[in-house]
Amino acid sequence: xxxxxxxxxxxxxxxxxxxxxxxxxxxxxxxxxxxxxxxxxxxxxxxxxxxxxxxxxxxxxxxxxxxxxxxxxxxxxxxxx
Length: 81
Prior knowledge:
Blueprint: H1 4-17, H2 40-54, H3 69-80
Helix pairs in contact: 1-3
């Protein structure tokens, strides 16, 4: 999981399978809170899942400014490089 596309694919799968979000609602531009209806607890769960996948410690601060699926992909991309 090194490229943005690979990260997006994994993230898409997590959002669809773990959070039961319709696949067609998930896009890079989708806002996690407004478009995908995640709440702060969902966001923490998402960070935990991503930590398991990357094997990297994800600082909650890094995710405070995250609003869109693209933001998540960018943050994970920074971590895995």
